[in-house]
Amino acid sequence: MMPPDSTWHRGIDLIAVERAMSGRGPCPVLTDEEKRYACREMTGAEMSAREIAERIGVAERTVTRWRDEDGAES
After folding, report:
1. How do 12-13 and 8-9 pair as beta strands?
2. DSSP letters for 1-69
3. Distance CA 1, CA 46 (A)
4. pLDDT by residue (tens digit) across 9-61?
């Protein structure tokens, strides 16, 4: 379990992911790992594949594939 005030987790910039999720201002450049992490987090927040794809700069099909690979509901 990570401390509540952590800004990094296993190489993931949690602040950048939060900014991408919030939709406030421009989305920071995310690494591939951060995009997948953000996708999981946004899926958990019940965001649509289209909205996730637009926020993190990938194709909607990529979001759907990642969800399938993770066993998440689309």
Report:
1. antiparallel
2. ---TT-SEETTEEHHHHHHHHH--SSPPP--HHHHHHHHHHHHHTT--HHHHHHHHTS-HHHHHHHHHH
3. 23
4. 778 989 888 888 888 877 788 999 999 999 999 999 999 999 999 999 999 99
**Sequence-distant contacts of 32-39: CB under 8 A, at least 24 apart:** 36/66, 37/12, 39/63, 39/66, 39/67
What does the block give as tokens for 5? 């005030």
pTM above 0.90, yes or no: no
Structure tokens at 45: 């927040």
Query: In the block, which residue shows the tokens 């690494």?
Result: 31
At CA 36, angle to CA 5 and CA 2, rounded to 5? 25
**Spatial CB neighbours of 12, under 8 Å, sequence gap ≥ 6:** 33, 34, 37
Please count the other Cβ atoms lying within 10 Å of the Cβ belonging to residue 56.
Answer: 21
